[in-house]
Write a structure and sequence with these properties.
Blueprint: E1 2-5, E2 8-9, E3 16-20, E4 23-28, H1 30-36, E5 42-45, E6 50-53, E7 55-60, H2 62-70, E8 72-73, H3 80-90, E9 99-104, H4 117-123, E10 129-133, E11 138-141, H5 143-148, E12 155-157, E13 160-163, E14 168-170, H6 174-178, H7 186-202, E15 205-210, H8 221-232, E16 239-245, H9 249-257, E17 269-277, H10 306-318, E18 323-326, H11 330-340, E19 353-355, H12 362-371, E20 374-377, H13 382-392, H14 395-398, H15 404-410, E21 413-415, H16 426-435, H17 453-459, H18 462-467, E22 485-488, H19 497-500, E23 505-510, E24 513-517
Parallel strand pairs: 1-5, 2-6, 7-15, 8-9, 9-10, 15-16, 16-17, 17-18, 18-19, 19-20, 20-21
Antiparallel strand pairs: 1-3, 3-4, 6-22, 10-11, 11-14, 12-13, 13-14, 22-23, 23-24
The structure holds zinc ion.
Zinc ion binds near residues 59, 61, 211 and 418.
Length: about 525
C-alpha cells in the first residue's frame, strides 16, 4: 500500500489518500490514514502541496513529439538569426544526410518573416536542409533538398503545393520532401515513444489521446506493434488511446480486417476513433475558409474530396468506429458536418467529434451542440493565434471562434496541446483558457469565452476522462478511481492567474507509481 499525507487535495476537505493495487482505496485525514499503514508501506508526505487528478491531454501526436525531441528544435527561436545559429550548430558533417529541424513560427518574428529557400541556401548549398513549421502543415527546403526530391519547378497538387522560388511546401506535398528521410525502425519508434512519455509525465500528464499511425511511417503496422509491445511489457508510463489516422479507405479496411476497432485494447493502450485531417493550419493560410483570409486571396485548402471522405467514414461506422475530424477553418467544419449528419445517431453515442474547433460560425456552433459532437480544443493555441485571428479572419467571425466556454457548457469537450505543435504545458494551457490573453503579444480573444479556473482544470481532467470513456475510473480523486495524480508546488485555484505560469509540477503518479519527480 501507499499513503499520501498532508496534501492540499483539490475539492476535498480531507488531506490524505490510501492507494492499493493502483486504485485510490480511501480518502481521509492524515491522522486516520497513518493508522492504516505499516512499516512495509510507502509513505509520501506532501507537506501541504496541491494534489490534483492527473492531467489528460485529449489530442497529441506522441511519436512525432518524441521525434521532434530527438531532432533540433526551433521552438524557442525568436528571429531568423536564432534559426541560423541553431542550424549551423547542428549541421551534419556528412553531406548526404538530410538535416531536419522543426518548430519555427514566423508569427512572433520581426516583420513576421519566416525562413525561405534563399535563407537556407545561404547556410548550405551542399547539405539538404528541411525546416518543418511548428504547425506541421508547412515546411521550407533548400535547393539541395528540392533537387534530391526531383523538384525543379513549382508544382500544385490536389491537396498541397510546392513553391520552387521560396522553397515553401504545403500539406500533402510535404511527403515528397519528407520521404527523403529514411523510415524509422521499430527501435527508433520505441525511443521516440519513451522520449514523449518522459516529456508528458514532466508536465503532469497521465493519460493521452494520441494520433500516430501515419506521421512518421507509411502505414499503421509498425507504430501499432510498438504500442502493443510496450503496453504488453508494462513499459507505458501513461494511458494511451490511439486516434487512428488513415488517409486511404483501403488501409483502414486492412486494419479493421485484422480485428481492430474502437475499444479494442486494455487499460494501458486502447484503440480510439478514426482520425481524418480535413484542412491545414491558420498560421500557414491552409485552413479552409468559406471567405478568403483578410490579407490574402487564398481561402486555404480542403484535403478531402467529399465523396472519398464519406466512403472512409462510412466504412469505419460499419465497425462502430466513430470519426474525429481535424477541421480548423469553417469550410472544413461544413464538410465534416455534412458527412457526419449521415452517420451520427441521436446524442452521438459513438463519439464523433471535431478536433481544434477554431474558426466557427454561429450556425455551426448550434449544429455541433444539437448533434452533441465531441470537441477537442487546444487553449494553448491562443498564444500564437490571438494575433493571427485579428489579422487574418473576418470581424464577424471573431466572436464565435475558439468558443471554448460555449462548447464546454453545451457538449462534450476536452483540452489538449496537439504536441508537438505546442509544448504539452498544461499549466500554460490552463492560464490561457482562463485569460484568453497571448503571453507573446498580449492580444486578447473574446473575453466572454474565458473559462473559470475550475472549468479549465476540468477541461484537462474529468472532461478528458469523459472523452476517453473512462469517466468512472479516471479524471477525479475519488475512492475506486485509478491513482493517477499530479502534485503542484502551489494552489492554482487561489493564486492570481499570472502565478499559474510560475507554478511547477513536482510529482506525477500513474497507477499509484511515481513516474516523475523533481
Ligand atoms: Zn494534431
Amino acid at each position: 500500500m501507499k499513503a499520501i499525507i498532508h496534501a492540499n487535495i483539490y475539492k476535498k476537505d480531507e488531506d490524505a489518500l490510501l492507494i492499493d493495487d493502483c486504485i485510490i482505496q480511501e480518502i481521509a485525514s492524515s491522522e486516520n490514514i497513518l493508522k492504516k499503514i505499516t512499516n512495509e508501506d510507502e509513505l509520501i508526505d506532501l507537506k501541504g502541496a496541491f494534489l490534483l487528478p492527473g492531467f489528460i491531454d485529449s489530442h497529441i501526436h506522441m511519436l512525432s513529439l518524441g521525434y521532434t525531441l530527438s531532432i533540433v528544435s526551433l521552438k524557442y527561436c525568436q528571429s531568423l538569426d536564432d534559426i541560423k545559429k541553431a542550424i549551423v550548430e547542428h549541421l551534419p558533417k556528412n553531406k548526404e544526410e538530410l538535416f531536419v529541424a522543426r518548430g519555427y513560427n514566423e508569427v512572433s518574428y520581426p516583420y513576421h518573416k519566416g525562413p525561405t529557400k534563399a535563407f537556407l541556401d545561404d547556410i548550405s548549398k551542399d547539405i539538404p536542409i528541411v525546416l518543418i513549421r511548428a504547425c506541421g502543415h508547412i515546411l521550407v527546403a533548400n535547393t539541395k533538398a528540392l533537387e534530391l526530391a526531383g523538384i525543379t519547378e513549382s508544382v500544385a497538387y490536389e491537396n498541397g503545393r510546392i513553391d520552387y522560388e521560396t522553397g515553401i511546401v504545403e500539406e500533402k506535398a510535404m511527403d515528397i520532401i519528407l520521404s527523403l528521410r529514411k523510415e524509422p525502425t521499430k527501435m527508433e519508434l520505441k525511443h521516440y515513444l519513451s522520449l514523449a512519455m518522459k516529456e508528458l509525465n514532466k508536465h503532469g500528464i497521465t493519460s493521452v489521446c494520441s494520433d500516430d499511425f501515419v506521421s512518421l511511417t507509411k502505414d499503421y503496422t509498425n507504430p501499432l506493434d510498438v504500442f502493443l509491445q510496450e503496453s504488453y511489457q508494462g513499459n507505458l508510463t501513461l494511458h494511451i488511446e490511439e486516434q487512428c489516422e488513415f488517409n486511404e479507405a483501403e488501409d483502414l479496411a486492412n486494419f479493421l480486417d485484422d480485428g481492430y476497432t474502437t475499444g479494442v485494447g486494455d487499460d494501458n493502450f486502447e484503440i480510439g476513433p478514426l482520425k481524418v485531417i480535413l484542412d491545414g493550419s491558420l498560421g500557414g493560410y491552409t485552413a479552409a475558409l468559406t471567405k478568403p483570409y483578410l490579407n490574402s486571396e487564398t481561402k486555404g485548402t480542403l484535403l478531402y474530396d467529399t465523396e472519398d471522405l464519406k466512403e472512409i467514414i462510412h466504412l469505419a461506422n460499419t465497425y462502430n468506429m466513430p470519426t474525429i475530424a481535424h477541421a480548423i477553418g469553417d469550410k472544413a467544419v461544413d464538410q465534416a458536418l455534412e458527412v457526419f449528419k449521415e452517420e451520427v445517431l441521436e446524442n452521438n453515442p459513438l463519439g464523433y467529434g471535431l478536433v481544434h474547433t477554431q474558426i466557427l460560425r454561429k450556425d455551426q456552433i448550434d449544429k455541433i451542440i444539437e448533434m452533441k459532437l465531441d470537441c477537442y480544443f487546444q487553449s494553448l493555441f491562443i498564444d500564437s493565434d490571438a494575433s493571427v485571428l485579428k489579422e487574418r479572419i473576418a470581424p464577424e467571425l471573431q466572436d464565435t471562434s475558439y468558443p471554448y466556454k460555449t462548447l464546454l457548457e453545451n457538449t462534450r469537450c476536452a483540452n489538449g496541446s496537439d504536441a508537438p505543435v505546442e509544448i504539452p504545458d498544461v499549466l500554460k494551457g490552463i492560464y490561457l483558457a482562463v485569460t484568453r490573453k497571448s503571453t507573446i503579444t498580449g492580444i486578447e480573444m473574446n473575453q466572454n469565452e474565458c473559462l473559470t479556473i475550475d472549468e479549465a482544470i476540468s477541461s484537462y481532467t474529468d472532461r478528458g476522462a469523459e472523452m476517453m470513456s473512462h469517466s468512472d475510473s479516471r479524471g477525479k480523486i475519488e475512492v475506486g478511481y485509478e491513482a493517477d495524480l499530479v502534485v503542484l508546488d502551489s494552489d492554482i485555484t487561489t493564486c492570481p492567474f499570472e502565478d499559474i505560469l510560475k507554478t511547477k509540477v513536482i510529482m506525477t503518479i500513474v497507477h499509484g507509481e511515481e513516474v516523475y519527480g523533481r
